[in-house]
């Protein structure tokens, strides 16, 4: 007779091979699912789709740990459909074709529809997405994609147009507190048998450290509880120092090629444009902490100094260029101070996008008037023949005049009254505005006094 088998204690720190707490606490019904009320609340899109049993290919887009995978499984369960789960990391065209064949067999045998859950769908390359597309088009299976990256950047347009993108949000503190409480109390799947308690300080650290990610929260909680010995009364009282010991600094929410990269860079640039040095420094610190190349930040400063400050303060561009060059000499961390100095200067400088706007206008006009010939007086005449043809004739050399400027046109005749650059009244441009306006009026006055034909053609 074999010895009696002892059921392993799932809550023992020495137990190995069991799923982590985050996996054990995964909700098995929609009623237990926490968060995403904007999708699951009464009358909201998923509530309506699931209530009526409608099938539609979906892409769930949201940050890590917000419930994308869990929600996908619950959708399949709620619609009483067959579910095939794949991860884009481990999937090739062969696996996609096999999934399509499995879906066909399931329909022939049971008349059950199939969901294909593709985790991290953004990792599928174009060829793999092309293989996926016809099966989604024909309804061989319905796609449930999950991604942390903006689908409009990562999913091919034909496939994206056949899916409804649902945006999931990071869990807020009330959601996280609910999940934490469930994990501490649940004796079957959670840590309830361990009789663990968290001090308010320990709980605060956990909630702040997880960054809205329930998976990170539960994994940190499990480690903190399991490494806290029980007191004489059997209660494991988890204190703040214990949480601090097990806490690994979470990576900043940032992806150099993904949505959050563009979000943070956008916030940084708009803070510079909005003349808020505090916000600019904050977003810059976030970007650098996430591991971005500081020279990328320097390049953004160059853009802002030209696009948003421009000639209202030409020294903003000087600061940005010097900061970039100085960083290349010093490196981090000292060189980051130069970037901070330039960021504050650019933020505080008077703003003008007049050069940026002028260039856009000039490009547009240049596209439509690209065949206009260069006026003869502006052409170079390196040979006698060209001189005889009138090249350079009637050109007035500005340095020959007392003011270093003379009334003269430099645009093709049809465009002679066109204005691209319109200086603002702020900063340096304000000093040049009246000066430039007087010169333009002098040119216009001369043009009005000209005979009805061009001087060059006379």
Automatic annotation (TrEMBL):
CDD domains: AAA, HLD_clamp_RarA. It holds the Pfam family MgsA_C. Keywords: ATP-binding, DNA replication, Nucleotide-binding. It comes from Desulfacinum hydrothermale DSM 13146. One of its GO terms (biological process) is DNA-templated DNA replication. Belongs to the AAA ATPase family. RarA/MGS1/WRNIP1 subfamily. SMART domains: AAA. InterPro entries: AAA+_ATPase, AAA_assoc_2, AAA_ATPase_RarA/MGS1/WRNIP1, ATPase_AAA_core, DNA_pol3_clamp-load_cplx_C, MgsA_C, P-loop_NTPase. DNA-dependent ATPase that plays important roles in cellular responses to stalled DNA replication processes. GO terms for molecular function: ATP binding; ATP hydrolysis activity; DNA binding; enzyme activator activity; single-stranded DNA helicase activity. Signal peptide: none annotated. This is Replication-associated recombination protein A. SUPFAM superfamilies: P-loop containing nucleoside triphosphate hydrolases (SSF52540), post-AAA+ oligomerization domain-like (SSF48019). Residues 1-23 are annotated as: Disordered. Residues 54-172 form the AAA+ ATPase domain. The keyword Nucleotide-binding applies.
């Amino acid at each position: 007779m074999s010895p009696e088998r002892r059921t392993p204690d799932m809550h023992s720190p020495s137990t190995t091979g069991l799923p982590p707490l985050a996996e054990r606490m995964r909700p098995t019904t929609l009623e237990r699912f926490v968060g995403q009320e904007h999708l699951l609340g009464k009358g909201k899109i998923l509530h309506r789709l699931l209530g009526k049993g409608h099938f539609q290919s979906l892409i769930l887009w949201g940050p890590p740990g917000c419930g994308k995978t869990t929600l996908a499984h619950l959708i399949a369960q709620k619609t009483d459909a067959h579910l095939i789960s794949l991860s884009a990391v481990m999937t090739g065209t062969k696996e996609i074709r096999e999934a399509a064949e499995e879906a066909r067999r399931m329909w022939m045998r049971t008349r059950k529809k199939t969901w294909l859950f593709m985790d991290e769908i953004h990792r599928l390359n174009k060829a793999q997405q092309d293989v996926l597309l016809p099966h989604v088009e024909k309804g061989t299976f319905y796609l449930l994609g999950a991604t942390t990256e903006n689908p409009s950047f990562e999913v091919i347009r034909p496939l994206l147009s056949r899916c409804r993108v649902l945006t999931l949000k990071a869990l807020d503190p009330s959601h996280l507190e609910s999940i934490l409480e469930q994990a501490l109390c649940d004796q079957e799947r959670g840590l309830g048998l361990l009789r663990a308690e968290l001090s308010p300080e320990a709980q605060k650290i956990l909630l702040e450290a997880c960054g809205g990610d329930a998976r990170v929260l539960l994994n940190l909680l499990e480690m903190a509880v399991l490494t806290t010995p029980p007191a004489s009364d059997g209660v494991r009282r988890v204190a703040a120092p214990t949480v601090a010991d097990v806490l690994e600094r979470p990576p900043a929410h940032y992806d150099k090629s993904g949505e959050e990269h563009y979000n943070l860079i956008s916030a940084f640039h708009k803070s510079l444009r909005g003349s808020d040095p505090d916000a600019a420094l904050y977003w810059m610190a976030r970007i650098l902490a996430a591991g971005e190349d500081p020279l990328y930040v320097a390049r953004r400063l160059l853009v802002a100094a030209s696009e948003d400050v421009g000639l209202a303060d030409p020294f903003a561009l000087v600061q940005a260029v010097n900061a970039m060059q100085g960083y290349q000499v010093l490196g981090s961390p000292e060189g980051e101070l130069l970037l901070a100095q330039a960021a504050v200067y650019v933020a505080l400088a008077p703003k003008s996008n007049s050069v940026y706007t002028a260039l856009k206008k000039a490009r547009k006009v240049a596209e439509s008037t690209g065949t206009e010939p260069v006026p003869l007086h502006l052409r170079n005449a390196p040979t006698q023949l060209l001189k005889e043809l009138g090249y350079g004739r009637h050109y007035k050399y500005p340095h020959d005049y007392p003011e270093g400027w003379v009334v003269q046109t430099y645009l093709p005749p049809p465009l002679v009254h066109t204005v691209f650059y319109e200086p603002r009244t702020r900063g340096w441009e304000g000093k040049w505005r009246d000066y430039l306006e007087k010169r333009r009026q002098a040119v216009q006055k001369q043009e009005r006094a000209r005979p009805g034909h061009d001087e060059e053609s006379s």
